[in-house]
Specification:
- The protein is mostly helical.
- It folds into 2 domains: 3-144; 151-263, Up-down Bundle (Receptor-associated Protein), CATH 1.20.81.
- It has 13 helices and no strands.
- It has helices at residues 3-28, 35-44, 49-55, 62-74, 82-107, 114-164, 169-179, 185-200, 203-214, 217-232, 236-265, 267-298, 306-319.
- Helix 1 crosses helix 3.
Length: 320
């Protein structure tokens, strides 16, 4: 590795470090423009300076921040500092990979291809270290959301039985969270969160918060249904029963839709995997017989022997 490559690598590492430091200072001194900034600063007071600096080292757009917060809540991370903790850990991992890779490239043997390979691996690893935690979090959030949606009809059935028995909705949530804890632990946790929110505020506000955390069609419809039933004074048990049946019907329709799509998806594996063996079985024996026939025909005295064919022509000409 020549001196110019070392200088360029060192300069790039310093530029990245200075950029991260500058963005952290700018974000730390940003002025307050609305009440959301005030709430954000109040939450940041509970974080250490190093953690805030690491979280702000790599800036992100506001839309990505909202999606990150949504996925954290879907995955079950309800802490007020979960976004800062996630960003700080991910940025720390990225910075460690960058500095270790650049240091290894500088310390490598000059004049060889090893420093260039190290820088290439460092760049790929840096991208993976930045993208992989976000992807894992998103997959975890979607898996937990699917588990909640699958367990919601069972929980609604128990809520209906409790409401029919005369229990109020808040006491029903306590009972249901205990009953479904073994089979649907994620649903039990969410119902317990809803119950605690309802104790502090109203049930309608707690259900709206539950809908905002999950941001799923079934959960949004449930929150709207229960809020409307309480506001109009209709029977909540009947509405919950009908809603649970509709959710099961939707799951059945989605399963049928996936089953119908399976035949189309299996078409290409069938063509690529099963068609060649079938062609071999059908065309293999005729091909072997044709090869045997051709080999026998080229032997002396065969129908395709050129010497025998010339003798036959000569005999016919002499007979004439």
């Amino acid at each position: 590795m020549n001196n110019s490559t070392i200088i360029i690598s060192t300069f790039a590492g310093l530029v990245i470090l200075v950029y991260m430091l500058g963005m952290a200072i700018i974000n730390a001194r940003r002025r307050v423009h609305n009440i959301n900034d005030v709430e954000r600063q109040l939450r940041n007071k509970h974080n250490s300076t190093l953690r805030r600096w690491l979280a702000d080292a790599i800036p992100q757009p506001q839309g990505e921040m909202e999606r990150l917060e949504q996925d954290l809540k879907r995955a079950g991370f309800y802490g007020s500092n979960s976004v800062i903790e996630f960003r700080s850990i991910r940025n720390l991992l990225v910075m460690v990979v960058i500095f270790v890779g650049v240091g290894a490239a500088i310390a490598a043997k000059p004049g060889s291809d090893l420093p260039r390979s190290i820088l290439l691996v460092t760049a790929i690893t840096t991208v993976a270290a930045y993208v992989a935690p976000r992807l894992v979090l998103h997959l975890q959030a979607m898996k937990r959301l699917d588990s909640i949606q699958r367990g919601l009809p069972d929980a609604l059935d128990i809520i209906r039985m409790c409401l029919t028995g005369g229990l109020p909705l808040r006491d029903c949530l306590v009972r249901v969270s205990r009953e479904v804890e073994f089979f649907h632990p994620d649903v039990a946790i969410e119902l317990e969160v809803v119950r605690r929110h309802a104790e502090i505020d109203t049930m309608a506000k707690a259900l709206r918060e539950f809908s905002r955390r999950m941001n799923a069609p079934d959960v949004n419809a449930l929150a709207s249904l229960v809020s409307q039933s309480e506001r109009t004074g209709t029977n909540v048990a009947v509405a919950v029963t009908e809603f649970a049946d509709s959710i099961r019907q939707q799951f059945r329709q989605r399963a049928e839709e996936r089953a119908n799509k399976t035949s189309i998806r299996m078409l290409f594996p069938v063509i690529l995997c099963l068609a060649p063996p079938i062609f071999i079985l059908l065309l293999g024996p005729p091909a072997l017989q044709l090869r045997t026939f051709l080999n026998a025909a080229r032997n002396p005295g065969g129908i395709m022997d050129t010497a025998t064919y010339s003798d036959r022509i000569s005999d016919r000409l002499s007979n004439r």
